[in-house]
Amino acid sequence: MPKLIYLGVIRIPTEKAHGLQIMQNCEALAQAGYDVELWTARRFNTAQMRRISDPFAHYGVTKSFAIKRLPILDLMPLARGNLKIERGFFYVQVISYIVVMLLRMLFTQADVYYSRDENILLPLSYTKPRVKLAYEPHTVRPSKMGRHIQQAVAARCGAILPLTGKLRDDLVAGGASADKMRVVHDGVRAERFANLPTQQAARTQIGWPQDAYIVGYMGQLKTMNMDKGVGMVVDALAEVPDAYIAIVGGPDPAAQALRQRWLAHGLPESRFLYAGQVSPEDVPLYLRAFDVGVLPLPWTPHFAFYTSSLKLFEYMAAGCAVVASALPATQEVVTDGETALLFPYDNAHALRDALQRLNHDTPLRQRLARNAYSLVMADYTWAARARVIKQHIEQCQRLAQQNDRAVQAD
Questions:
Q1: Fold topology of 191-379
Q2: What's the rounded Cα separation, in Å, for the pair 365 and 371?
């Protein structure tokens, strides 16, 4: 069985979405036929995450791969919230991880070295065969130095697996080989959404009102200090009579600010449903209780072109109707009027109209939900994604070997 090592300077478990993405990806790659090891960093964790003794159970994945925690120099607790100091300490984390990783790699062999992090893959490309390096980029780096490193890694890796078509195009424009590219959107673990209760049963279990029209948002309210547009949902719902908003995620201060914004519209606090951060295994239950899952991302280069949102796929898998801002990355997955309702990203009135329409048109809401569910289960599961990844990596390795033989023959 070919061996794959997944590399990341990450906390596992973590309250952030990338932890779920990576754990489900590793499970799917193991099921696709790899012997998988996940090399994380031994970092200080939050009090909530330290209470989790079994990350596999926390994320609801099988113990089909191994987790190894590399010791690193983690000074982050000393930063005490100072962003400039945190940034410096983050680089200390990365550098110390790379040093320990390279030392361990002296005694480790694998068929694939896989990472989302170009800072890891660049030094590794000097010690391991480049054809064995697989790069899953999630954005185009904004700084000149970051782009230079990213372009170097794209040139040196054997296979590249960008999350969106625009990301692929930008990497190719920067000099990467299109032949090494295969777009692989994020997805869902189908088993997490099997045998879900009815919406009524889910609401009973959670304690939410049965007959309410509930518009829900799941996840972090900010990413990389970028707001994710939920305030506009509050403003839009202020004009949708009797609608409820449900927020499953956080952090608490951001959610409480939204609560105050809700109350400032004169809306009753009873219609502001805040669940906070829930465990990944409970997320499908909460999503099942939504009527509509909303993805109101604003226009930034990251959200517009490079985001493959986990929540979008999970809304679809839970049977929600989806309302999302019409950004190019989102439109690579869903189609307006068929699998979602899309609205101009900066237009609260259009968002209000979409939410109002779904409140009054139950058949439309049900049709969108059915179509979205069929699409995600057919095309966007982690299992299907892992098979594509494995096929692409193997194809790239075969082509590289053929090219090497051709060069030797000449």
A1: Rossmann fold (3.40.50)
A2: 10
